[in-house]
Amino acid sequence: MLVIKNVVLEELAKSIKKEFGDVSKLAIVADGNVAVLYGESLQKELVALGLEVELLTFAAGEENKNLITLEELAAELLNRNFDRNSLIVALGGGVTGDLAGFLASIYMRGVKFVQVPTSLLAMVDASIGGKTGVDTKEGKNLLGTFYQAEAIYMVPEFLQTLPKVELVSGLAEVVKHGLIKDIALLDYLKNNREAILAGEILVLKELVTMAAAVKLEIVAMDEKEHGVRKYLNVGHTVGHALEHLSGYKIKHGEAVSLGIVVESMISKELGYLSETDFAEIVKILELCELPITLNAKFTVEAMWQVMQFDKKNLDGAVIFALVEKLGQAVKIAPIDQSLFTKIWQQFYA
């Protein structure tokens, strides 16, 4: 069972101590940026409460979510005598959660870990559901596990230091959740657009609550992605390929936004999605200041090659999650190269 705990920043350390005070040691895993912003202070607060805590850092960026970084972090745990009764605290965005969660799942065949997401994207999506992993030269998240956090601590104050570009990137996952299951979430997003983009905490807190509820409901029904959890891949088949081909210069949320556009074009071409709903999807993305067009040129051959490594694929077919109707219907369908080529050419037209 997934446990989400809403706490204020000043109570975070006390809450962790209350729930996990019996562990032998704690390892806070954070990238270099978050370590300075929040990691060092959280470590001091936990130590003051009588816990033995180490801060493990790695270079920020999706390009560092790989086996090399994973092995370096594992070596740090070993060299600092972390045992099976240890706790890993994933403090950061989606990259940190994926990396630290994977580390927890394989270190000594599994130790406890908690998620403390600091980005909007991580709060509404990446920290929820137990997907962990690293990237390879072939593609994104191709090595990983399903491994649930013991708890997810939601701290709205973290969003106050989040750069706007990261806030906007996170909105892509919010839009995705609304498209697949919650029209009211899309309405909230549209009606509160200015306050959200301005970073107003109370509005963002409600947005996180609504968006996270969608992910929680779906994961509760299908933890290992055998059925409805596949709906959460809307925008991600194309999105992951774009991230990979750009060398991760395109942010995840930006790539998902572009993926939503392209995949919605496919859905419309197949007769699943209406012209009206397609126009509404594009309008919502624009309102969120998310990209709907792409300046960088990636060939259809390069895109198709990367998408063939996508972990959602079955029996050699490239599988897409396509929106059929806003807020309530998704079609899981194999798409052939000729159709994708046609849509990719239209996307660049």
What can you tell me about this protein's structure?
The protein is an alpha/beta fold and 349 residues long. It is 50% helix and 17% strand. It has two domains: 4-160, Rossmann fold (3-Layer(aba) Sandwich), CATH 3.40.50; 165-348, Dehydroquinate synthase-like, alpha domain (Up-down Bundle). It is built from 14 helices and ten strands. A four-stranded parallel β-sheet has the order 3-2-4-5, with helices on both faces. The longest helix has 21 residues, at 201-221. The termini are far apart. The mean pLDDT is 96.
In short:
The protein has 14 helices and ten strands.
Lay out the secondary structure.
Elements lengths: L3 E3 L5 H9 L5 E6 H17 L4 E6 L8 H13 L7 E6 L1 H13 L5 E6 L2 H7 L4 E6 L2 E8 L5 E3 L9 H18 L1 H9 L1 H5 L3 H21 L14 H10 L6 H18 L5 H13 L12 H8 L10 E8 L3 E7 L1 H12 L1
Parallel strand pairs: 1-8, 2-3, 2-4, 4-5
Antiparallel strand pairs: 6-7, 9-10
Helix pairs in contact: 1-2, 3-4, 5-6, 5-9, 6-7, 6-9, 6-11, 10-11, 10-13, 11-12, 11-14
Major sheet: 4 strands, parallel
CATH topology of the largest domain: Dehydroquinate synthase-like, alpha domain
Residue-averaged pLDDT: 96
Q: State the share of residues found in helices, binned by percent.
A: 40-55%
- What's the shape? globular
CATH class of the largest domain: Mainly Alpha
| Total E-strand runs | 10
Read across the widest sheet, the strand sequence of neighbours is 3-2-4-5
- Radius of gyration, in Å, reads 20 Å
What is the count of helical runs? 14
End-to-end separation in angstroms reads 47 Å
Strand content: 15-25%
SS-derived structural category: alpha/beta
User: What CATH architecture label of the largest domain applies?
Assistant: Up-down Bundle
Q: How many structural domains can be distinguished in the coordinates?
A: 2
N to C succession of SSEs: EHEHEHEHEHEEEHHHHHHHHEEH
Look at the structure and name the CATH superfamily of the largest domain: Dehydroquinate synthase-like - alpha domain
Poorly predicted runs of 5 or more residues: none
